[in-house]
């Protein structure tokens, strides 16, 4: 079949043994690639007895049949594992250019088992995969390690690596690629560090076969026209980047501030996308195959970098009451170099600030103290002092110091940049997310705030469950292809299924693709149930459920979760405890 390269590589770092095997055809068609095959491999190989930071955990790098083709945003890859932060099944994905060189090595999936005795790197090219000595790179920060590996293996090589945060098993460490792109969330970098794997270097040159080139390019052309006609993808994101959302979310009372104690503050304008463009922007940056170019190539003084993105501006900025854009830039740059997830880092520091204000923390951490934030980022990556507690994430930090409600998290994963008291469907999406507090499992903000593809009442809880489920299934499929979430501003399952069919030669209807997404979602749910998760975990921080905001556009609002959750379970075909019924599993082929 076209689209896929047809090979899965398995590397056991304990023995340096490498084997290649062909895809099981049925598994390929049912799970496609990316997040889907990652979830299947983790479900089959990682049980409740496995500590996420032990050698028995499995790390899966995977691409999809559209990767490295002319399909829009086809430069993404997925990393799947059991999360050391949440204990759930987890996948994180990233853009840039690494995925194209990875797939060009002739494989779709890389399964990493065991753990090396000493630091190693994995080198991949058209002919072979090698486990090489990585001792000289261990301890290096991301930018230095990436530069040295690129110098060693050539400019055509692409690098995915961890920084000191991953090496020190920080539970909020990510995997960085192409210097500034990141598979950030859930501590996937810590899993890589636990295996003593510093980096993966990919230098493939094979091309992807397309089954029906003429039809494929026709559909791709249609997709690109859609992006050109959509004001978000054609104007807002290219001009101002993702931080274009700052002013809008603040004006509507959705931008979290002071650890979700406020959502509407006038200082937000100082850190918005318009200010980034005016004060820091060098030029927009795009990942492979992307015409949107939402990335920001930026410079502060004589230092060049990328970002900050909207989520980073919130986490290191408004959530911590830091309104100095230049300091946020420095903090973001440092997180990238150390290999830290900026969302979890910022929200965990904000949690520490609240605990400190309450007198529950042994160290003074004041709101808005930019120098302290930068200091704590460094300490977190190296687990020094208070950084050792921050490295565990907000849930463990708040529990240790006696105030669990101060942690703004779901299932252990720190919440992103939308307060659900101003977008109730997003609250349901957070609560039911299989990987924890996440906006990329269902982006109800599109419907409730942006009006894409239509605007609905953001304060209502009626009929939100069906919309959340639709997005969860669609986004599961998109993560399996692997497509950027921003393509969803203009494309739906019909476009994706047409591209997939033309690329592979396998007929996928829109309904077929949505069924794949639903199958993946339910398989992930089964993994979490096996790990001990249940209805009690499908919830939100107490603050969002019972503490109304006292000012701003969302004054007086809380999230009425229970009524939406009941409807959600029924529509999912799950029982009242959130377990998929036998009938549902049989329909999905998971029985």
> Quick one: CATH superfamily of the largest domain?
Aldehyde ferredoxin oxidoreductase, N-terminal domain
Structural class: alpha+beta
Rg, alpha carbons: 22 Å
Residue share in helix: 40-55%
Total strands: 17
What is the average per-residue confidence, as pLDDT, rounded to a whole number? Answer: 97
Number of domains: 3
- Global geometry: globular
Q: Helical segment tally?
A: 24
Instruction: Give the neighbour order of strands across the main sheet.
Output: 2-1-6-3-4-5
What is the name of the CATH topology of the largest domain? Aldehyde Ferredoxin Oxidoreductase,  A, domain 1
Question: What would CATH call the class of the largest domain?
Answer: Alpha Beta
In percent terms, what proportion of residues is strand?
5-15%
Under the CATH scheme, which architecture of the largest domain would be assigned?
A: 4-Layer Sandwich
Extract low-pLDDT stretches: none
Q: Largest sheet, if any?
A: 6 strands, mixed
Distance, first to last CA: 27 Å
